[in-house]
């Protein structure tokens, strides 16, 4: 994606738009501001993923320090960032931000579906974008009644769409599945708390 002479990877543009739009839709449809855990999670992920380049490509970084602007830690950095994200969500955010138990599945669905819609719009995949848009409308319609079962259904539908148009066994599919299961686990903690 080009903005003037600046080239921005479509994944970054879609991620940033999805991050902002998911928080905005959450605010509109629930009248609640999203917890700080949401913003912190993305900051930690991005920071670790981007700076892991130094760790994995130390010699290259020493020769060209500004290369950190253009490069990231790749798949190794992505996995490291996911591990840090999981640790943050389970050991810090879960205790510091009780709202995470209520918000996790809703905001992840918003983010995931908006991300898929935007990335396919940017990459000019109209049919896939249209299908994700329909799923987003359905999600918005049911958002007040979202349960773990509905979340799991929407996640499976997203993964089905992803596998139909691409590969389920990609880094993207694995990432969404992993984070989806984490959000489901965080949400189940809320259900257990209500029962006791």
Task: Explain what you see.
Helices cover 81% and strands 2% of the residues. By secondary structure, it is mainly α. It has a two-stranded antiparallel ribbon with strand order 1-2. α5 (74-96) runs parallel beside α9 (171-195).
Biggest pleated-sheet summary:
2 strands, antiparallel
Beta-strand share of residues: under 5%
Please give the order of strands in the largest beta sheet: 1-2
Runs in which pLDDT lies below 50 for 5 or more consecutive residues are: none
> What fraction, in percent, of the residue positions are helical?
over 70%
| Mean model confidence by pLDDT | 87
Quick rundown:
By secondary structure, the chain is mainly alpha-helical. It is built from nine helices and two strands.
């Amino acid at each position: 994606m080009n903005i003037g002479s600046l080239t921005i990877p479509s994944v970054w543009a879609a991620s940033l738009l999805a991050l902002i739009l998911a928080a905005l839709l959450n605010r509109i449809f629930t009248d609640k501001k999203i917890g700080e855990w949401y913003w912190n999670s993305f900051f930690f992920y991005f920071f670790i993923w981007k700076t892991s380049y130094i760790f994995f490509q130390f010699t290259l970084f020493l020769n060209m320090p500004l290369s950190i602007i253009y490069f990231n830690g790749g798949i190794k950095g992505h996995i490291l960032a996911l591990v840090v994200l999981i640790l943050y969500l389970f050991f810090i955010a879960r205790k510091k931000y009780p709202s995470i138990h209520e918000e996790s599945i809703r905001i992840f669905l918003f983010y995931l579906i908006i991300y898929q819609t935007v990335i396919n719009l940017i990459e000019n995949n109209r049919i896939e974008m249209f299908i994700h848009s329909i799923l987003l409308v359905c999600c918005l319609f049911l958002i007040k009644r979202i349960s773990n079962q509905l979340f799991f259904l929407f996640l499976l539908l997203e993964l089905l769409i992803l596998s139909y148009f691409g590969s389920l066994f990609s880094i993207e599919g694995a990432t969404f599945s992993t984070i989806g299961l984490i959000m489901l686990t965080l949400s189940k903690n809320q259900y257990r708390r209500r029962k006791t």
